[in-house]
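Students often ask why inverse folding is considered easier than folding. One informal answer: many sequences map to the same fold, so there is more than one right answer. In these notes we will look at a single instance of the problem. The structure comes first.
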């Protein structure tokens, strides 16, 4: 094989690979779009939120530790 044949073969392989990836991505986008339209929004689980608590003691302990650490350096 000479260089021209290798170059043509490599361009063909490049086109085949990139074409396959492009088609798979287009199919994936289509499937996601269809599923998003089929599943009602009420079925999507809400993100759990952490309860708000009084963390003043925790914040004070962290602040004291930072103050001591900075005082050492």
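Output (designed amino acids):
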């Amino acid at each position: 094989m000479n260089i021209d044949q290798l170059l043509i073969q490599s361009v063909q392989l490049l086109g085949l690979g990139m074409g396959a990836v492009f088609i798979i991505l287009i199919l994936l986008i289509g499937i996601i779009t269809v599923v998003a339209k089929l599943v009602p929004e009420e079925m999507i689980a809400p993100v759990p939120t952490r309860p708000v608590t009084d963390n003043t003691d925790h914040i004070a302990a962290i602040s004291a530790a930072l103050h001591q650490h900075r005082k050492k350096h």
